[in-house]
Design a protein that fits this description.
This protein has a single domain, classed as TIM Barrel (Alpha-Beta Barrel), CATH 3.20.20.70. With 371 residues, the protein is of the alpha/beta class. The strands form four sheets. It has an eight-stranded parallel β-barrel with strand order 5-6-7-8-9-10-12-13, surrounded by eight helices. Strands 1-11 form a two-stranded antiparallel ribbon. The protein has a two-stranded antiparallel ribbon with strand order 2-14. The protein contains 16 helices and 14 strands. It comes from Natrinema limicola JCM 13563. Pfam families: FMN_dh. Its cofactor is FMN; NADPH; Mg(2+). Involved in the biosynthesis of isoprenoids. Catalyzes the 1,3-allylic rearrangement of the homoallylic substrate isopentenyl (IPP) to its allylic isomer, dimethylallyl diphosphate (DMAPP). This is Isopentenyl-diphosphate delta-isomerase.
């Protein structure tokens, strides 16, 4: 989720050009996500049944949900996925998210830092830097676009690391979104080489993440071979960035792009399938895209993921404040703990070994891909 999570082009205003276009996109995306129908189903978690253990032989409250990500100990395998930053209006959101990540000891990513790298605006920069200010101990990761790596060198990406004192850096892949944007960057040539160069020389681990369309096995293998430290599949299901850009295109009268956005609204590899495929070739996979509960996170971990990530479900609570975000995290953690209890999993490593059954479209998809 994408010039992550919020990156749009604003329709022409009544002569007010004070806010640069890259920054305004962030604000527009929030409005569209809050006001429009931009959800799709099909992530595949409904097709995953964890096998029930009637004699779990463990005390629920003694179950260990902790996990390690790049050597950082987390209380639970929950990630607040890259959402926003790059517009003064997003500072409040990032503050609430980061404060909650600090309080509950889970991971959090920021949205694309392109605006922070390219625009000299103190209020805009604060929308990113606030996360480390209020979360000195949390696992935080930065975010740049793969297309921008064709313009940036490693030193530029290091600036993004330094901006939030990041523990890792995500490189997002959002080429379908770019293809729907009337002003999108559709030159994907050379991106893998650029990712490989950054992965080799950056001072922190590199995560490559999709933005709602999934990462297939073959692509995950290429990323593993390129030295990428983790893959966030961000599969089909949940927020559709093709749909968001379709709304944006409609606002500026770009009828053809609007129609293309709707046509590709549900495009991609379903999250459950993408998790299975990526985990078969890479040992550190984050599952996101339509993850909506702690049970979904448990299923993703059983499929091979190290953690599960959510973005849109955190947006409304973030607008209410830190306590609302913490409440959602605690609910997710209890849902996860309950799933672990009824599968007899006393720890996250045990959950990764629990039995599951593939049903429906997900089973058909996996079967066809194995032919």
């Amino acid at each position: 989720m994408n010039e992550h999570l919020f990156n749009t082009v604003t329709p022409p205003s009544d002569g007010d050009d004070s806010m640069p276009e890259t920054s305004d996109r962030k604000d527009d995306h929030i409005r569209i996500i809050e006001e429009e129908d931009i959800e799709t189903d099909g992530a595949g978690f409904a097709d995953i049944d964890l096998v029930h253990e009637a004699l779990p032989d463990v005390h629920r409250d003694e179950i260990d949900t902790s996990t390690s990500l790049f050597g950082h100990e987390l209380a639970a395998p929950i990630v607040i996925e890259s959402m926003t930053g790059g517009h003064p209006n997003t500072t409040k959101i990032n503050r609430a998210l980061a404060e909650a990540a600090q309080e509950t000891n889970i991971a959090m990513g920021v949205g694309s830092q392109r605006a922070g790298l390219e625009l000299d605006d103190e209020a805009l920069l604060e929308s990113y830097t606030v996360v480390r200010d209020v979360a000195p101990d949390a696992f935080l990761y930065g975010n740049v676009g793969a297309a921008q790596l064709l313009e940036y060198d490693v030193d530029d990406v290091e600036r993004a690391v330094e901006m939030i004192d990041a523990d890792a850096m995500a490189v997002h892949l959002n080429f379908l979104q770019e293809a729907v944007q009337p002003e999108g960057d559709v030159d994907a040539r050379g991106c893998l080489d650029a990712i490989e160069a950054v992965a080799a020389d950056l001072s922190v681990p590199v995560i490559v993440k999709e933005t709602g369309n999934g990462i297939a096995r073959e692509t995950a293998r290429r990323l593993a071979d390129a030295g990428v430290d983790a893959v966030d599949v961000a599969g089909q299901g949940g927020t559709t960035w093709s749909g968001i850009e379709s709304h944006r295109a409609a606002a500026v009268g770009a009828d053809r792009q609007e129609a293309i956005g709707q046509l590709f609204r549900a495009w991609g590899v379903p999250t459950a399938v993408s998790t299975l495929e990526a985990a078969s070739v890479h040992d550190c996979v984050i599952a996101s895209g339509g993850v909506r509960s702690g049970l979904d996170i448990a299923k993703a971990i059983a499929l091979g993921a190290r953690a599960g990530g959510l973005a849109k479900p955190f947006l409304a609570p973030a607008g209410q404040g830190t306590d609302a975000v913490v409440d959602l995290i605690e609910t997710l953690a209890l849902e996860l703990r309950t799933a672990m209890f009824v599968t007899g999993s006393a720890s996250i490593p045990e959950l990764r070994e629990t039995d599951y059954v593939l049903l429906g479209r997900t089973n058909e998809y996996v079967t066809q891909r194995q032919r």
